[in-house]
Amino acid sequence: MTLQDFQVGEGDLSEAILSEYLQSPAIAVDTETMGLLPQRDRLCLVQVCNPEGQVTAIRISRGQRVAPNLKVLMEATDVVKVFHFARFDVATLKHNLDIVVSPIFCTKIASKLARTYTNRHGLKDVVLELEKVELDKSSQCSDWGNASSLSDIQLSYAANDVRYLLSVREKLTAMLEREERWQVAQECFQVLPTIVSLDLLQFKDLFEH
């Protein structure tokens, strides 16, 4: 993927791009933040990709609390949102932009249920095995806060994080169905919003004795 293959927007999706994405049965989604604690580390970028490979990266400014068109898309009940480690991204979108994402498919959960022959379930490992592509993750730990001057390397990294998710979802779904674990996977996806709410309330180990 080259940088010409996707668009960078400011603050929200345009009406035209929203209309295009709403026609998709599923879209891939990822976020970039200043760290791993949603209550502390702000949301900087949201990337979206449809089955046609159209990627949009939305810059989120410091202090921004709404993105109406993005909210419409993320809450559209007939569009599945595909994440890798949805627990974090869904919490980030809810805390920063008051978006309650649904329905959800998490490729990390699916990988853990389907690929029980390995303990390597990071996006790089999953994409390498299922797509035969080695992702460059060198920009994962970088400053995403200066949205106006993100480097081409950062933007390429952000785009690639959603580029393969829909294909990965198809392959993992086939594995889950083959191993008769598709139903339990769906149940896991359905409970994610509750887990996210508990995370944001900072409840830990709630189900331990």
TrEMBL record:
<dbReference type="InterPro" id="IPR051086">
    <property type="entry name" value="RNase_D-like"/>
</dbReference>
<dbReference type="Pfam" id="PF01612">
    <property type="entry name" value="DNA_pol_A_exo1"/>
</dbReference>
<dbReference type="InterPro" id="IPR002562">
    <property type="entry name" value="3'-5'_exonuclease_dom"/>
</dbReference>
<protein>
    <submittedName>
        <fullName>Ribonuclease D</fullName>
    </submittedName>
</protein>
<feature type="domain" description="3'-5' exonuclease">
    <location>
        <begin position="5"/>
        <end position="177"/>
    </location>
</feature>
<dbReference type="InterPro" id="IPR036397">
    <property type="entry name" value="RNaseH_sf"/>
</dbReference>
<dbReference type="InterPro" id="IPR012337">
    <property type="entry name" value="RNaseH-like_sf"/>
</dbReference>
